[in-house]
Amino acid sequence: MADKEAKEGVLRTLRNWGEGSVPPTLLATLITAQNMRPFQAVPMIFPPVLLFSSYLNLSGYETDAAGITAAWSGLYGLLALRRKQGLKKKVTLRGVVRGGSIGLCLVNVTGCGLAYVFGKREKEELSK
């Protein structure tokens, strides 16, 4: 019984994370900090989309915003994992920010994916 409650607690926590407007904003901030100097064009496509997702969330479209955040976080995570780093570069501040952004991508994909899959849209609720 306690295992089931604990599992539901973790899933509910992840879903609550995915329904918030902070995760895409936080990831956009980390991406910008990493790729602004020196400017890298391809990774800098992601922050505007993530900030738009946060705007959608605040406008009342939590489920759709969660789907956008999950998809674009996953894409950025794959892009960031393609770049190889040596051990010396992983222990610098830039390496820690990169690791944090990849970890946040993983949490966003999980939490926002749960929020998107189990979320309800206003149109579906009105028709029932």
Could you please describe the fold and organization of this structure?
This protein has 128 residues and is mostly helical. It has one domain (2-119). The protein has 7 helices and no strands. The chain has helices spanning 2-18, 22-35, 46-58, 62-82, 87-90, 93-118, 122-127. Helix 1 (2-18) crosses helix 6 (93-118) and helix 2 (22-35) packs antiparallel against helix 6. The model has no long low-confidence stretch (mean pLDDT 88).
Give a short synopsis of this structure.
With 128 residues, the chain is mostly helical.
Distance between the termini: 33 Å
Low-confidence stretches: none
> Rounded to an integer, what's the Rg over CA atoms?
16 Å
> What number is the mean pLDDT?
88
Tally the helices. Answer: 7
Work out the helicity level. Answer: over 70%
- Characterize the overall form: globular
What series of H and E elements makes up the topology? Answer: HHHHHHH
Major sheet size, sense and barrel closure: none
Share of residues in strands: under 5%
Count of individual beta strands: 0
Structural class: mainly alpha
Structural domains: how many: 1
Which descriptors apply to this entry?
128 residues, mainly alpha, 7 helices, single chain, globular, 79% helix, 0% strand
Strand-helix topology:
Layout: H1 2-18, H2 22-35, H3 46-58, H4 62-82, H5 87-90, H6 93-118, H7 122-127
Helix pairs in contact: 1-6, 2-3, 2-6, 3-4, 4-6
